[in-house]
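The protein record passed on for reference:
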Amino acid sequence: MHRRFLAVCLFGAALAVAAAPARASEDAVQFFNNIEVTPDAPVHDAVCFFCNVHADGVVNGDIVVFFGNVRLNGQARHDVVNFFGNVTAADNSSIGGDLVSFFGSVHLGENVTVAKDLVAMFGVVHTPASVSIGKDHVVFSPWILFGPLLVIFLVVFVIVHEIRVHRQRRFAQAYPLPPRQ
């Protein structure tokens, strides 16, 4: 039993030593600090939490932003994904993969190319006629989510209002005003 355990531990240690380290020297990952991609300094992947990505150069991988904005004035060779922020692509920019936006707006300039799909969930898309989208263009309006919530809010508001009016009437009937003298 002890020999098997020792053999498994030695095998695990050998695998750990032989494992190749992760390649992250070309990636830009930031928390609360903006990422600026210049034409002189391309990056592979740009991942940003609570900050913005401004790409004037080439991003060879993906751009992923949580709670921030993406401004593309160049080329993103793979996907652009944004959660709770806006995506803006300047004139003649290109996205080599998908453009996905959740709860944010998408503004594309003239002659922007999206090689695959454009998906905007619960956001607004502003695209001129010169934008080229390779595959599907899917936009779910924010009203799909907020419309039913608005109806529920209005129903609750009317019910609460009617209950308050009914209580006021009962109170007024129970305690009439004294006669004037």
Summary: Residues 19-24 have pLDDT under 50 and may be disordered.
